[in-house]
Amino acid sequence: MTTDAPALGARQVVFPTAGSMDLRSTEVPEPGASDFVMRVRRVGICATDLHLFDGHIGDPFPLVPGHEFVGDVARIGADAAAARGLEVGDRIAVEMLLPCGQCSRCREGRYNICERDDPALGPAAAREYGVNISRSVEPGLWGGYADYLWVPAEAIVHRLPADLPWDVAALVEPLAVAFRAVHRGRVAPGDTVVVIGPGPVGLLMAAAAKLSGAARVVMVGTRPSRLALSTRFGADTTIDSQATTDVASAVVAALGSLADVVIEAAGVPSAQTQAATLVRRGGRVVLAGACGWTADVTFGSDRDLLTREIDVLPSFLSAGGYEPSIEALSTGAFPFDELITHRFELEEVQSAFDLVRHKKDGVVKAVLVLSD
Ligand SMILES: [Zn+2]
Ligand SMILES: [Zn+2]
């Protein structure tokens, strides 16, 4: 590092308390030897960000939201450059979670459920959903809704191809979430897959299932426009669950039997219950939609699970999903750019939230454009 580099100033969106947001400017410190500073180019707006804003997730305030960020290396410490093989200008995606890499869960590759419990990282309440950049990293407050992001030594960083447009690159994290769910369901060539919930991640799950060899994919949802869009992302058949009295029969009509794998991405307990009724005997049900900390789900214990030996497999976040996600986005296997329906400047975040919250104007995925 040169010590005479000009100070970086960053705009950032801060949620000081539940239900309020400020646009602030902050000075970005020089990275230490093992850290770097990322210039954020795009950050996707996720339904989770709205839940954070509303105070539903239990994260301590103040915070800077945003976990779907991509950008490039702005400044990098000497040790970080050597260890990571990165230099200024390299295009990257950074995983939000900061796993320890040492615990049993990390060593088996399930770093999304890292068991690190380091008191130096803050109160236990801050770590209900794992340790991550946006909540736990000194100095300052970090998150993707900002011009710059501090990236510490333990962060997992992925290189992005230089020709991948930033807007498409912004889908790296949601597609990684989709791939994790598909992997948890052990989707294999020839399998039949039902996805419940054609939100952005559900649409990407259909694509990820196809890319993992699924023979046929059925999308179950309630909004005709989203169901139609799912056919561009790998769904062979769609079922409107509000217009269909017996969804299981509709699945059998489409596939000739119930599905090998059902992936629930709707984020409501009723969809999780339904998932177990759409899977064949001995099949796999993946629960990937977040329903809220206090939600409970009920299954037909003997009827749906026991006597049919269903594997119920929760899938949390994106561990192991970034590599196939970047590969899929690079090859352009599906028209991923069609999912980015709206782009906003950071100053317009309030209107962006309004659009996403009320699902206005046919929004699928909205992104904040920090810089081109
Ligand atoms: Zn997200
Ligand atoms: Zn760990």
Q: Assign the CATH architecture of the largest domain.
A: Alpha-Beta Complex
Radius of gyration: 21 Å
How many helical stretches?
13
CATH superfamily of the largest domain: Medium-chain alcohol dehydrogenases, catalytic domain
CATH class of the largest domain, please? Alpha Beta
CATH topology value of the largest domain: Quinone Oxidoreductase, Chain A, domain 1
Give the helix level as a range of percent. 25-40%
Q: Roughly how many Å apart are the termini?
A: 25 Å
Strand content: 15-25%
Query: How many domains is the backbone divided into?
Result: 2
**Which structural class should the secondary elements be placed in?**
alpha/beta
Ligands (ions, cofactors included): zinc ion
The number of distinct β-strands equals 15
Largest sheet: 7 strands, mixed
Low-confidence runs: 124-130
Mean pLDDT: 92
Shape: globular
Order of helices and strands: EEEHEHEHHEEHHEHEHEHEHEHEHEHE
What would your notes on this structure say?
The two termini are 25 Å apart. The strands form 3 sheets. Strands 3, 4, 5, 6, 7, 14 and 15 form a 7-stranded mixed sheet that branches. Helix 6 (172-184) crosses helix 12. The protein has helices spanning 47-54, 78-84, 104-107, 133-136, 166-169, 172-184, 200-211, 224-230, 247-255, 269-275, 301-305, 322-331, 349-357; strands at 8-14, 22-28, 36-44, 68-76, 91-94, 148-151, 157-159, 192-196, 216-221, 237-240, 259-264, 279-287, 311-314, 340-345, 365-369. It folds into 2 domains: 8-97 and 132-170 and 335-369, Alpha-Beta Complex (Quinone Oxidoreductase, Chain A, domain 1), CATH 3.90.180.10; 178-314, NAD(P)-binding Rossmann-like Domain (Rossmann fold, 3-Layer(aba) Sandwich), CATH 3.40.50.720. With 372 residues, the protein is an alpha/beta fold. It is built from 13 helices and 15 strands. The structure holds zinc ion (2 copies). One zinc ion binds at residues 46, 48, 67-68, 174. Residues 46, 48, 67-68, 174 line the site of one zinc ion.
